[in-house]
Amino acid sequence: MPIPTVDELATFLTEIEACLNSRPLTYQGAELEEFNILRPIDFLQKEIVLSLPKALTQSQDSDPNYLLPQEVQALKTQREAEKALENSQRRVEKFWKIWKNQYLTNLREKHKKCIGSKRSGQETPKVGSVVLITDPVLPRNEWRLGRITKLLSGTDGQVREVELVTSTKRKMHRPVNLLVPLELEEGETDSSTPQEQKELHDSTQDIPSAHKNVRYDLRSKNPVQYTETVTTKAFTTAKPKPSKYWFLFHLMILFMQFNLGNSAAETKILCGENGAIVNSSKNASLEICAETYCVMRNNDATNPQVIRPPAEMTLHDYLVTVKWSDEGHLYTIQTRCPALDFCKNIDCTICARLLFNPECWPKGAIFMLAFLLYIFATTMYSLFCIASLIGKTLRIIIGITAKIFTVILRKMAKCISYALRKNRRRQTTRAMRIAAALALMTILIKQEKIGVLSCQEIDVLEHHSTSCVISREKETCKTSITEVLKLNSFKQEACLRLVKNSSLVANVKIRWHGLRLTCAKETEFFTRATKLSVIDSKRCPHMGSCTGAKCAVINESTLLPELRQGNQYPGRTGCLESCGGLGCDCFYPSSGCLFYRVYATPQNSEIYEVFRCAQWKEEVKMEVLVEELRLGKRKFVISTIPNIPVTLPMVKITLTLCTIPPTPITTYEFVTNGAETALWPKEIEPNLRCETREKAIALNCSFIDNCRCEGAEN
């Protein structure tokens, strides 16, 4: 049996509660004929009916009537609901059979002290008592009660059968072992202790009684536990001892209810006046999208997330989608929010959106336009008018500044030439030239190393493994170093430095370039660009195809010679009853036929394929830079696929895991003509649905339309 979902488990637990709360506790009523039982559910709502009859509404007709797509979808939803109800009822019926037997057995456990006498009890039922009658064929939540009217004794004086009357005034005979007392029954409770009962039993053994049976002084037998569900004692007033199985059962129900509460919906989307409000009890990263506007939020369980999409998106009803990842599973919820007032959702004071929509705030738009015109006029006036008035002053200031800079440059040139002449007078030795060259090389090498090894800080996991081989008294060891690097779109670089005996062997730099997803295509159907057309023909009775049963024999696939033009294309044929007689230019005074056919005409020869991606294959492009002292720098650009190693000089790179953030486009359907690909909206239903490309070329396709045709006389 498959694992039930949260909704199925909630329904199952509710049905279990109904079974538990429908058991009869006791009866009420002053008359002996009344059987008004009292159930636990009656304390909440009296005489409520908990049974849910299921009527089979599925049609058994081999030739069902034609239904429109909307009606077909409604019928499909109804059948799915009926199937889900059947599965739920099957589980509840299984629980009912187990629980009913356990419950009746538990009621008999109140008389466990009397089981040692096997088929005969030490106490007899009482006339007028109401008991439960064991009946294995009763439906769920139904119990049969009866009132004892007569006790039937055997030849040995023991009561093994009683006469009962039911609520329908029917009398019946039942053995005592098929009767079970109610959970709460009338009678006095025997409060004496076991020691007092034993003393009373010993004191009354010597009292002669005419009706007391003579019993042999036999050895006492050990109690025997029978597997049958019947008992020889149907009445007692002792307080029942709770069973450990009942305790475990109630503990299981409470645990399942707690688990159900924890697994209930933890994320909700509410539509507000200013956008969507997301309430989530998960402390996780949420991707919230309103149509094409998406944001990433780090959710805080105490504060709801408010998303305000652009005002132009809320002019019509918009779809809000929330995605989050939890324990390796991607969860998605969607809701459609109603359109909002455009003006109320403009959240800026000075912006182009408010300027180009003056009806939202006329005064603000006028003020903004006047302010912009003022800024433009002031700028033009400063550039042309003020510059011409103070032009002479500006020229004087610029001339003085240029002279100052010229004097400074001349002084600096004289100082440099003086220093050079002084240095030429000194004799440079060979040691000084070598020291200067070494210093320059050191600076250049240091700068080069800094440029190569400047990387980001990432998480690195390191593992060393050494394998040694001994052959001919010679041991050869090989050391492998495995480094696990975590790269992402924010930390794209990682550097490794290989050192042996404090000597640099090589530097390895790995840079993440990008991720490429390849679609594993799964074809849904093929279609073509079509145009719907209608052709009709009016025929008088007993003329052409309007003979015999007339419209009664016409179905969607009928090809009529009157509609020859539309028969060569996919479509559906229909017939409506029309007028006849002399008033409609017909000879026979009978109803005529109005034939019509709705068909799809292809607009071009292109075949479109609608598909979805059942799986996305990841491929990561990386740039690897290997620098060795002997071979210098070498650059490699590789493409890595998960769990497939790529071997390079000195290193072997394997992509072990690729985690993709929630990407809505990966769940969409696509349409392609072989050269171009586009998104396919799910709400669009084409007129032609073809199984293969060859059938689409031959127009051997299923025809779908939403047209309704009605006759109109002219």
From TrEMBL:
Residues 87-182 form the DUF5641 domain. Residues 183-205 are annotated as: Disordered. Coiled coil: none annotated. The keyword Protein biosynthesis does not apply. The chain crosses the membrane at residues 365-384, 430-446. Signal peptide: none annotated. Keywords: Membrane, Transmembrane, Transmembrane helix. Residues 455-713 form the Phlebovirus glycoprotein G2 fusion domain. Pfam families: DUF5641, Phlebovirus_G2. The keyword Transmembrane helix applies. This is Phlebovirus glycoprotein G2 fusion domain-containing protein. It comes from Cylicostephanus goldi. The lineage of its organism: Eukaryota, Metazoa, Ecdysozoa, Nematoda, Chromadorea.
